[in-house]
Amino acid sequence: MFDAEKSFFSLSVVRRSAAFLIGVAIASAATIYFGSDLEINLSYHGFNKLIEVYRFPLGVLALLIPIIAVLGVNHRSEQTRVQIKITSSQNNFSNHFKHLEEFIKYYDSHLDGMVTDLSPRELHFHLFPRSRNGDYTIHEDISESIETCFYCIKKAAMPLASEKVTISDINEVANNISNYLSGIEGVIGARLPYPFLMDLEGKEKSLFEKYTNYYQDRSRTKWTIVVCIARARLIRAMLAFSEESLNEEMAHFCNINDSLIPEYFIDDESTLPGFNLLNLKERQC
Fold first, then answer.
1. Of 7, 127, 138, 237, which has the fewest beta carbons less than 10 angstroms from its beta carbon?
2. pTM: predicted TM-score of the whole model, two decimal places
3. What dihedral do alpha carbons 166, 170, 172, 177 form, nearest 10°?
4. 207 Cβ partners below 8 Å, 6+ apart?
């Protein structure tokens, strides 16, 4: 009805309204003229009588003023709404590329070296698909997958809190945790290379050693759990770019104190004291 791109008097609603009222005024004036016995009187009495006789058609014509004014206000409101929408769209477009630029910088400084089939731009779109519309929250499917993943990890780690455990028990828990992490890595589209401390030099080696808290002893069952925590820490580092609060169970898992995890040899066949993995004191970052 109110096309913001058209001028006011080119709007069909304005033309139809004016035509209708003018038509009613002309029809009523013609009816009065042909249905009444009137005489021409050019004195002031005659002009006053003219206004009195044609009061209805003149009143109809007078309605044009408020009606046109109301239509004009609505037209200006529509133009203002469209202008605000255009401005907002331009701001969102500009902010999207600023957000993308900052993400690429963050990627290069914090996440360079991880394994992903996506470029930084594609990864940004994967994590923040609605950023062009001004929504910089992580995709809800990813958030829900993270919540489910770390809830399952919490449940999977419970057997370690038993009074006695075996190496096979520890390995089973570690493998279950690893499988859950593989699922979330698949949803996010990025992961640490495996084995990520072998044949890597320079920046990548330093980066991934940081995620494992510089622990490298593969002869003990602790290594498998440390690897899982390192993978979770990379996921946390990637999602930390968003200003959203991270999943509490994910944060708790990532902050496990590596040094308090018991170091059992892989070939140990004895029954060992259990430990509550998720209740270990938080590590110092």
1. 7
2. 0.65
3. 160
4. 112, 113
How many other C-beta atoms can be found within 10 angstroms of the C-beta atom of residue 263?
12
Report d(CA 270, CA 248) in Å as an integer.
Answer: 35
Environment class of residue 279 by beta-carbon count within 10 Å: exposed (0-12), middle (13-18) or buried (19+)? exposed
Residue 6 has which token pair?
A: 């058209």
Distances (CA, A) of 93 to 58, 88, 169, 249: 53, 8, 52, 35
Q: Whole-angstrom Cα distance, residue 144 to residue 97?
A: 26
**153: helix, coil or strand?**
helix
Q: Which amino acid is at 285?
A: C
Per-residue confidence at 50, pLDDT binned at 50, 70, 90?
low
214: left (phi > 0), else alpha (psi -120 to 50), else beta?
left
Q: Is pLDDT of 199 > 50?
A: no
Six-digit token string for 13 = 């609603």
Is cis: bond before 195, omega within 30 of 0? Answer: yes
Query: C-alpha angle 105/111/112, rounded to 5°?
Result: 85
Q: How many helices (H) and strands (E) does the chain have?
A: 10, 4
Using CA atoms, how far apart are residues 125 and 216, in angstroms rounded to an integer? 35
Does the pLDDT at position 284 exceed 50?
A: no
CA 159 to chain centroid, in Å, comes to 37
